[in-house]
Amino acid sequence: MHLLTPLAAALSLPLSEAFRRSGHETLDELQPQEMSAKRVAIIGAGAGGSSAAYYLSQNATKAGIHADITVFERSSHIGGRSTTVNAWSDPNAPIELGASIFVEVNHILVSAAKTFNLSTSSDDRPKPDGAPELGIWNGEEFVLVTSAEDGWWDKAKLLWRYGLAPIRTNSLMRSTVGKFLKMYEEPAFPFKSLSDVAEQVGLTNITGVTGEQFLKANSIGDQFANDVIQASTRVNYAQNLPLIHGLETMVCMAASGAMSVDRGNWQIFSQMLKASATTHLNTTVAKISKQADKTYALTTSSGDTSIFDIVILAAPLQFSKLVIDPAPKHVPDQIPYVKLHVTLFASPHKLDPTAFKLDPGNLVPQFVLTTLLPNENYGSDPNGVGSTGFFSISIVGAGLNPRSTPKNRPEYIYKIFSPKRIDSVFLSKILGEHVPEEGESANGPISWIYHKLWHSYPYEYPRVTFDEIKLDEGLFYTSGIESFISTMETSALMGKNVARLVVDEWIESAAKQKIEVSEAGEGLKLQPEVGWEFKGLKDQEIQKPLKAKL
After folding, report:
1. In 42-63, which positions are buried (b, 16+ CB within 10 angstroms) versus exposed (e)?
2. H or E segment at 273?
3. Where are the beta strands (DSSP E) in 87-181?
4. Do 457 and 338 contact (CB within 8 A), yes or no?
């Protein structure tokens, strides 16, 4: 409850609720007093920063507040880890380097794609004719192979092998996702504390244990957990079940309705910023200095300084090399992040079946996920890739090689996730062709190759408390949610949440400042959200008719 005035106290209502009951149907019926523009800096143009800018602009406009939003991004592109690279440097062949898909329960991303009229498609990536869709490889054998065309008999065989584990896992996933989705709505949203809201919706008992512990507690058999669920945690987060917490484990299984934006998911975030903010790319913020008047001076690496009322840090502080002076009341934890090597390459060759101990002439699945051998147990050791040496290999596209002679040789485009940089020896093995050390050559077995090392996501160790959202007065942080769930959607949710918290603070502050109760009987004004304006009436004269009305 907002204890702002004797009036609000007498009504025992939040200001927004008291406004709704005062007889006014909409804010448009009122004439809110003009408020000075609010200057907001957002550091980071990824999912969190873009979402914060977009929803802050929308919420401020609804409240009659002008927000001047500036986004600073040190890289040359919008989208953060959601970005594309062009195969063969051809702009007509963009390939997702980072976050490749989102799913139907990702309400913010799905809604934004529709709002911005972005074309989306389900997974229609090319595959060798007749090849299975997915295989799970443990270094010795494929423990599971599935095809998109699998019918009831194939599904029955899956149940025969794993019992009720697939059904129980699906039910457990739906229950967990249902709890998480409560964070999008009142009374949980907006949340001032991620730790508190996780407790409120019933998720801390899931984040506080490992995936292995959570699955066992819910009667999910070890074989299905190790063969299937662990393959999913490895491809999504490069982590085994005894390391990753239970909530992130369930997130990996919520893959229904997978989709992507044509030519790159980063377009969602680009459109968000286009609609809400001024964005400066290739601009690094080096220092944030809190001023005596509680504003913040932001200084870039080039020496330019600007003043802002609010700063939203939308990138992991530990990687920003950012100096905050004085140090904020709450400093985010430094936590270990996965160092994930992503390798994209183009080749006319299919994966060699003998590299996967298949008979010559067999086709390797389009998606090769990996798990551990039965005798491999790394516990919570983050260096637990196992004998496979990689987390996944998949065909993510196809195209015509413009560099080949003759021109336009048809080729597949592959993506590998691994804990170490992929070299020519490994590529030679999986293709069954000699790949020279220099890697690519126009007419060689690999015509184009691209390497990227990401700090892709945290190691999702079990925990029940999370970083503060508000680091200090006027200073907010979005990346604390990555230890809870690390996805484009959850970063966007935190951006939306911070945007709402900021505007709610502005409304509350404005209401306090606009209250004028003078001993001479000047009256009382509450602006802008409450929107009431009483003149020439004393406090008790206002309370009486409103009490009667309620």
Report:
1. bbbbbbbbbbbbbbbbbbbeeb
2. helix 266-274
3. 94-96, 120-121, 134-137, 142-146
4. yes
Q: How many residues does the chain have?
A: 550
Lowest pLDDT segment from 119-133, 271-285, 350-364, 444-458:
119-133
pLDDT mean over 520-534:
41
Beta bridge partners of 343: 416, 451
Picking from 491, 74, 110, 71, the residue whose alpha carbon sits closest to that of residue 276 is 71
pLDDT average, residue stretch 503-531: 60
DSSP state of 463: -
Per-position DSSP letters for 215-242, written without gaps between them: HHHTT--HHHIIIIIHHHHHHHHS--TT
Q: Which residues pair with 43 in a beta bridge?
A: 72, 313
Task: Kindly report the pTM of this predicted structure.
Answer: 0.87
Q: What is the mean pLDDT of the chain?
A: 87
377 close to 444: Cβ distance less than 8 angstroms = no
Query: Could you tell me the two tokens for 278?
Result: 């001024």
Tokens representing 244 are: 């990753």
Asked if residues 80 and 316 have their Cβ atoms less than 8 Å apart, the reply is no
Residue 147, pLDDT score: 83
Interstrand relation of 392-401 and 409-418 (parallel, antiparallel or unpaired): antiparallel
